[in-house]
Amino acid sequence: MIRAIKGTRDLLPPDTAVWNRVEAVAREVFRTYSYHEIRTPILEETQLFARGVGKETDIVSKEMYTFDDRDGTSVTLRPEATASVIRAYIEHRLDQKPGVQKLYYIGPMFRRERPQKGRYRQFFQIGAEAIGSDSPFIDAEVIEMVVEILTRAGLEGFTLLINSVGDANCRPAYVEKLRSALRSVASRLCEDCQRRVETNPLRVLDCKVPEDQIVIDQLPSILDNLCGVCLPHFETVQAHLRERGIPFEIKSRLVRGLDYYMRTTFEVVHGNLGAQNSVLGGGRYDGLAESLGSSVPAPGIGFSIGEDRLVMTVGQSTGDVPDIFLAPLGETALLHAGGLARDLRRRGVSVEVAANAKLKRAMELANKLGARYALILGDDEIAAGQYSLKNMQSGDQRRVTRDELFSTIGS
RNA sequence: GCGGCUGUAGCUCAGCUGGUAGUAGCGCCAGAUUGUGGUUCUGGAUGUCGAGGGUUCGAAUCCCUCCAGCCGCCCCA
N or C: which end of chain A has fewer CB within 10 A? Predict the structure, then answer.
């Protein structure tokens, strides 16, 4: 048997109904914040991610699906979408368009990790980017929007974490400060952290080993080391969030794994997701466009929601059920039912027709499918210009004319 | 990439220390006389017991390898 490859999966009904609902909510929220959809290719030149996401990140260094195209260029299945959106922004000179470019996307991403609960090799993200403004107002608006999407999608009990990771001005100095502080306490840390002291000191802050926490809590905080631009920026973002009544927690140890983040970063976590407790991550990336070759500055901020994780958390669906199930008796009635089904469908009614004529079987199916009504069409009904309409829940059955049928079901 | 656990019908599983697969539950299909579901009863279909190899007279049961899934590490969404 041929099966879906490791880390990928088929989404089947009724689950797809939940996916569709979540996406519909997201699109509706995006619309009200005047974001517009962008669709970029799933396949990109490898160097886009090497330069955009960062060569040293785990994503680029060991998780990408990369292969040589037939002409020899190295191509990659996108592991995230921000780099592509910025590429498109530069390529199509979207900086020439009026106002802040607000773009959103929904689609599959690919990372070759070990699959786990909430972690797949093909996974879906719902994300957005606001490009062309470095105002903290935009940061707050983006965060508000994401909270709105999660809430309206039905997510409960989540926590919004925010932080500032500084910029090219203050972060390097902080990293050095952190590194030297770490060297003096390294012996009290876990093996992984001892390695990180040299490779990536910021990652120590994200360590989950309980014994390390006491040591880590004593380390210098990025928030005490922000420069004269980053600090007021972060304070303004917080002021806006408070003004809008959005609850958040400052987590100075919140570190992101993509190189392009600067200043504001944020994350939403939820308890039901196991080790993969993050539903969403995002942040500001003012230098990204330039590092991808933009001749003009294009400060931006964005996020992406892990759709698989969101769907997992907002729960099950019973799926869509037919409004009415037609049970024609005999070939003549079936012909008639075909036309009637078409007319109902044109009125927006969802209809299923039993093609095999046995009434008992038809009623059984109507019941199993959860149809609200069943309509029996025998020769005598058709001759009389009336159908037998049965309410499947109450069991009531009555004769109705075609017009009565439409007015009963159509609403 | 590294650990741990798991892998028997569509689904959830039983099958003790090896003896040649379950009357299990749910689901599916078909019946219980003529045009009516949800309850009940009867019957039926479906498995190379994850794959390959080994031990053995004999393996779903023991051993090895692989594959897949789950959980954790790592990382992230």
Answer: N
